[in-house]
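User: Sequence in, structure out. Go.
Assistant: Echoing your sequence, followed by the structure tokens.
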Amino acid sequence: MSELRRTPHGALPRLGYGAANVGNLFRPLTDDESWDILTAAWDAGIRYFDTAPHYGLGLSERRLGAFLRTKPRDEYVLSTKVGRLLRPNPDDDGGLDLAHDFHVPTTLRREWDFSAAGIRTSLDESRERLGIERIDIAYLHDPERHDLDLALAEALPALVELRADGAVGAVGVGSMVSEALAAAVQAAPLDIVMIAGRFTLLEQPAAREVLPSCRARGTGVVAASVFNSGLLASAHPTRDGRYEYGSLPDDLWDRLQQIVAVCDAHGVPLPAAAVQFPLREETVRSVVVGGSRPAHVRQSAEWMDLPVPETLWDDLSERGLIDA
């Protein structure tokens, strides 16, 4: 797990942990359970950790920061996200943030702010929640969900200025929308983009727009959600598996069955192919996985290290199941 892949402003490990789950994504975790997950990631050799204010209304940042403060700062890479500020929620009714799939109280609410002052404030408040001064990468989070034009005009220049000031090591954008990522890469001198679910073994729409722009601009890529919401995390997925925010479309299910058949023919577990596939692209520096149990994280690290024959990729390409 110690191999580093260069970005224009540093190096990233091949495998990272995305800490949404320790923000109580999909199910509640205790502090001890979250600590055990992060310990499993560290013990498996993972040295890149990604979080965001959005994840559990700051809970992920607080838990991750508490854990990482026990580790030597120069031994890991840390990224968080900007664009949403957390503010007291005057409409709190004592419920949970289940509208966003987080099992946390709604005492806070998210407020979009793409202004230069808002971006700087977001970064400062993340530092405070983390208890860690140095943040290596700051991503503008889901700009298309608020105002992509405003993001390109104000938020990205603000991030670039923060990088120039030394307030953060590298800057980028994180999104599930290929068009937004491509527009951002064209608009600003970004170090890296996080592509969530759009460059996976199952589907690669980012290969048509985002990756060519990244190659041309020298922008690195982090591939996240490579298991497509857990669909590719088992060797033989079931038809009722979760796919993003709904059910799996029929055409993707048929495609998935073909991919599984090829993996089986080569004796490669589907999840191993899924976690290793993005790194075949020259611009991809790291793959970020989640996990709500220590065993999940350990398994992902083992899949990353499992030998995969080149003939598997050849067969998938010949059948038109992955981009050549």
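User: And one key feature?
Assistant: The mean pLDDT is 94.
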